[in-house]
What we know:
By secondary structure, the protein is mainly beta. 9% of the residues lie in helices and 34% in strands. The chain has a six-stranded antiparallel beta sheet with strand order 8-11-10-14-13-12, with no helix packed on it. The protein has a four-stranded antiparallel beta sheet with strand order 2-5-4-6. The protein has a three-stranded antiparallel beta sheet with strand order 17-18-19, with no helix packed on it.
Amino acid sequence: xxxxxxxxxxxxxxxxxxxxxxxxxxxxxxxxxxxxxxxxxxxxxxxxxxxxxxxxxxxxxxxxxxxxxxxxxxxxxxxxxxxxxxxxxxxxxxxxxxxxxxxxxxxxxxxxxxxxxxxxxxxxxxxxxxxxxxxxxxxxxxxxxxxxxxxxxxxxxxxxxxxxxxxxxxxxxxxxxxxxxxxxxxxxxxxxxxxxxxxxxxxxxxxxxxxxxxxxxxxxxxxxxxxxxxxxxxxxxxxxxxxxxxxxxxxxxxxxxxxxxxxxxxxxxxxxxxxxxxxxxxxxxxxxxxxxxxxx
Length: 296
């Protein structure tokens, strides 16, 4: 019954394995021109390609079927479906918008974006729209009882904020609608999901450093686990800790000696060597007042 029915049986029998590398293709069972198709799908297999097939329906009307098909099946298209007088395959996103003598999307079109006004899980939106001049693709997301769901549409560009590394992060948090993220982007069908808010967290402490000549050692940690997303909170607390230690080379008489050896040391408790008895003792060093180096 045509290449499209072969596609459907292939799609149903295969698991829905989606990948950022899988093609996105226009997918319609029967349209008068390929570029009139207003739905799209991410192909289930990495080696799938986009196809279009010219068909005739039961009323004798000519139209087109579009979708995904395995690359090796596409090579045998003419032998698989003898009722089609034209069937073509392509290996780029949305490239089956034209073919078999029909024009594709015009070069001066806007971005093709997903257009689903109702909350849906990732990958479940298939309706598309072509953004007009001054518009970009946008998506909002929220957590719905443990499942992240999204709305998508074309949005005026001035609602999206500052452009950052290919992604436009929205000025608005949409807290009144309980949205957890809002994101705009400027490539075809890039608005299938957005990053949710996440607070930054401390990574693990490094090992203590060697005991330096000023009788102290340090360790540090990074506030990047994960990076803050969509206005998440920064880490709270110290990125570096210092503690006293002992070696035979420790000959620090007061806090000014410590400051002279390392001007970046923070205020805190340090171990010094008393100048008369050469015994070790812990003192509090003020490294900020009057230039620092004050011993309490």
